[in-house]
Automatic annotation (TrEMBL):
This is histidine kinase. The chain crosses the membrane at residues 12-33, 203-221. Residues 263-290 form a coiled coil. It comes from Vecturithrix granuli. Pfam families: HAMP, HATPase_c, PAS_9. PANTHER family: HISTIDINE KINASE, SENSOR HISTIDINE KINASE. Residues 362-414 form the PAC domain. GO terms for molecular function: phosphorelay sensor kinase activity. Residues 223-275 form the HAMP domain. Keywords: Coiled coil, Kinase, Membrane, Phosphoprotein, Transferase, Transmembrane, Transmembrane helix. Its EC number is 2.7.13.3. It catalyses: ATP + protein L-histidine = ADP + protein N-phospho-L-histidine. SMART domains: HAMP, HATPase_c, PAC.
């Protein structure tokens, strides 16, 4: 009873438990064997492998050390000896690592320690000898036996001894490499043999355990599964034969009992299903009659075609579409539907390829040939019909006459092509008109720029003439003073003693060091103090001397020059020194004037420049604003205070010439609004992904009733002749061209124009597109 209540899984589990128990025994045995092998491998990895590796490193490093010594002697490069010391240190380090290995036997350690001492002593001696050899051959291009014989005999002897030591050390290091390599190979071979022996033992035990377990499982399966399954097969044969009386297995709790119960239930259900299927077959016959009616009366052509192209079936609509009198005539006349009906062979191949790859074709449009040779357009849908094994039986599908639709589409296509041609012509006309408009706009901006430049030209001329006048005056003074000095200076120097000449040069050098900026009060006090000091030393013309010395910047300590001032020609000496040192002051004036004129010319050149390429460039906004302010300097300097707040902002993609026109118009309007007196604030800063330029003037402001109109073309509040009314309109168009915007805030005494410009060119291209 217990045997019948156990499930098959439990019975198999009991047999597998025996297999697992045997496997555990095998694992325990393998663990002890593996532990023994790991111990030996650990000894190899901690002793023999590091020893073999370090011995090879020591041998290679020592050979590299000897090579560098020889190269140092051959090339006369003492720096190579220093590199050789690094390899000597690597040799000693490798040997010391071997000595520190705990698993190495004492005898081997002692032999390696001896070599380490020998290498250390050799390196010390070699350092000295090879340095001397390198110095001896430093200027020798080719070392020959004759040049070697010229060396100091003692040095030759030491070199020979080093060579012998080199060979001895190399031999001992080579022996260590071979010894450790052989020991490592022997130990690894031994471990490999032991591993193979253990592997064969484990395999034998595994086979015994597996065979025993499989035998037990086979016995359990035979009694628990095979015998009951044979009974189930007999029951199935009885069911297939249609027997009504069947001897079922007794009920049990294992899987076979469940299968027996399921089979019994399935048999009862199958008998009920057979009755239901008979009723379904009757219903199917009725459905087929309905389908046949649809097939016969459908407006679409319906067909079935064999794989060889022969029609199996066709409805009256298909025969009518391709001009046959009846389906029977179509079936008897057309031997290969695809080959005889299709007009375009490429369409036929495409249709067959899609049908083969995907198993169906939906609304494939092509031209077909009718019985009377007329060509019509048809839309064909088809699919493959397969048997239960996936073998192709035939094709079935439908065909619709779409000739009228295709004719309508052709007419529509012709109309569309004509319409597209007309649209293209109109587009070209509009493009030409747009290009003409852009050219007109560019000319208008350039004309506005030239008009503004014409208003500024008088101030620009003054800004250039002022530094030119300063240059002319300074050059005239330099010419006259230089002529006078060159005439009198040689005779004056001949009258001075060498000490006085030295003092004279000191006076000039101190004057050339630069003059501090003094107030009038400070200058008067210095002149008074110098005059008193000079009078103390009984120097004639003390007041004139004090004035000249202050002008020269010499007033802190004049004691070294007192003897020079007491000379009978002191007036001539001081005048000569003043004339020579004043040239520096006049040269500086010329330099400042040249820089000022250059700045104005540069601003004028950049402002008047017109870029015909119409390409955007990356430009710093503040540079363009400063150019405009330079041109307006003459109008601003008399009564308008310019305050600039420039934050660090990135350069932006823009049209620099057009933006300069924006700043010109805004500054010009601000100057006119303030009547030449007031305060102009210019702020430049970054706000998110935009650069903002904000210009604020202290003028009268813009009345509220006209604020909405100030950007209209030709709108102006000035009297006739003073303005065209296009300035702010041009400003707005340029800003919008840059995908930016301009805003106005105004009240009496404070008017602000804010210009927002994108940093990147993407927004500008999008706007212009």
């Amino acid at each position: 009873m217990m045997k019948r209540s156990l499930t098959i899984a439990v019975k198999i589990w009991l047999s597998l438990s025996i297999l697992v128990l045997g496997y555990l025994i095998l694992v325990i045995l393998s663990f002890h064997l593996e532990k023994s092998m790991k111990t030996r491998l650990r000894d190899v990895s901690e002793a023999l492998i590091p020893a073999a590796k370090q011995s090879e490193l020591a041998y290679a490093a020592f050979n590299e050390q000897i090579r560098l010594y020889n190269d140092a002697v051959m090339m006369g490069e003492e720096s190579l000896i220093g590199s050789a010391q690094n390899y000597a240190e690597r040799t000693r380090t490798a040997l010391q690592i071997i000595i520190n290995l705990e698993e190495l036997n004492p005898q081997q350690k002692e032999m390696i320690r001896e070599v380490l001492v020998q290498v250390t002593a050799f390196t010390v001696s070699a350092q000295e000898v090879y340095v001397k050899l390198s110095s001896a051959f430093a200027d020798t291009e080719d070392i020959t036996p004759e040049t070697t014989e010229q060396l100091d005999p003692a040095l030759q002897d030491r070199a020979i001894q080093l060579g012998q030591q080199t060979e001895e050390i190399q031999e001992r290091l080579r022996s260590f490499v071979d010894q450790f390599a052989n020991n490592l190979k022997t130990e690894l071979d031994s471990i490999n043999i032991m591993a193979r022996r253990y592997g064969k033992m484990n395999l034998l035990i595994s086979i015994i355990i597996v065979i025993s377990a499989l035998t037990l499982i086979a016995i359990i399966i035979k009694h628990s599964i095979i015998h009951p399954v044979s009974r189930i097969v007999d029951i199935a044969e009885s069911i297939r034969a249609g027997k009504e009386e069947i001897e079922w297995l007794p009920e049990s709790g294992d899987e076979i009992g469940v299968l027996n119960t399921s089979l019994r239930t399935m048999t009862e259900n199958l008998q009920a299903e057979i009755k239901e299927r008979k009723r379904a077959e009757l219903s199917l016959l009725q459905t087929e009659k309905k389908y046949q009616m649809i097939f016969e009366n459908s407006l679409e052509g319906i067909f079935q075609i064999r794989t060889d192209g022969r029609l199996l079936n066709a409805n009256p609509a298909l025969a009518a579409i391709i001009k046959y009198d009846s389906p029977q005539e179509l079936l008897s006349t057309v031997t290969n539907f695809m080959e005889q009906v299709y007009v375009n062979r490429e369409d036929l191949h495409s249709f067959e390829r899609v049908l083969h790859d995907e198993g169906k074709v939906i609304r494939f449009e092509t031209q077909i040939c009718c019985k009377d040779r007329a060509i019509i357009w048809a839309s064909i849908s088809a699919r493959t019909v397969l048997d239960p094994n996936g073998k192709l039986l035939y094709y079935e599908g439908s065909l619709i006459d779409i000739t009228e639709r295709k004719q309508a589409e052709a007419l529509q296509h012709a109309y569309k092509a004509n319409l597209e041609r007309e649209v293209k012509e109109r587009t070209q006309e509009l493009s030409l008109a747009l290009e003409h408009l852009k050219a007109t706009q560019r000319e208008l901006i350039q004309s506005e720029k030239m008009a503004a430049l014409g208003q500024l030209i008088a101030g620009v001329a003054h800004e250039i003439n002022t530094p030119l006048g300063a240059i002319r005056a300074s050059m005239g003074h330099i010419s006259s003073v230089l002529q006078e000095t060159l005439y009198h200076l040689p005779a004056l120097l001949q009258r001075l003693t060498p000490e006085q000449q030295q003092t004279f040069l000191m006076l000039i050098q101190q004057a050339l060091q630069g003059k501090k900026n003094l107030t009038s009060r400070e200058e008067r006090k210095l002149r008074r103090d110098l005059r008193q000091e000079l009078e103390t030393h009984q120097i004639a013309n003390a007041e004139m001397f004090a004035d000249t010395l202050v002008d020269m910047g010499i007033y802190e300590d004049i004691t070294p020059f007192i003897t020079l001032f007491q000379d009978g020609h002191s007036t001539e000496i001081l005048r000569a020194a003043y004339n020579l040192t004043s040239q520096q002051h006049h040269s500086q004036n010329i330099m400042m004037a040249v820089e000022r004129a250059s700045k104005v010319v540069f601003a004028l050149k950049n402002y008047a420049h017109y870029d015909h390429s119409d390409e955007m460039t990356r430009t710093n906004i503040t540079e363009g604003i400063d150019i405009v302010l330079t041109l307006y300097h003459n109008q601003l300097k008399h009564g308008i205070e310019v305050i600039k707040y420039y934050d660090p902002v990135p350069a932006i993609q823009c049209y620099p010439d057009e933006l300069n026109q924006v700043w010109t118009n805004l500054v010009h309007n601000a100057v006119q609004a303030m009547n030449g007196e007031g305060q102009l604030e210019i702020a430049v800063f970054q706000k998110e992904n935009q650069v903002v330029v904000r210009m604020t003037d202290s003028g009268c402001g813009v009345p509220e009733e006209i604020r909405e109109r100030i950007f209209e073309p030709f709108f102006t509040t000035k009297i006739a002749g003073e303005g065209s009314g296009l300035g702010l309109d041009i400003v707005k168009k340029i800003v919008e061209k840059h995908a930016g915007k301009i805003e106005l805030e105004s009240q009496p005494g404070r008017t602000t124009f804010s210009v927002f410009l994108p940093i990147t060119a993407a927004a500008i291209h999008s706007q212009n597109t």
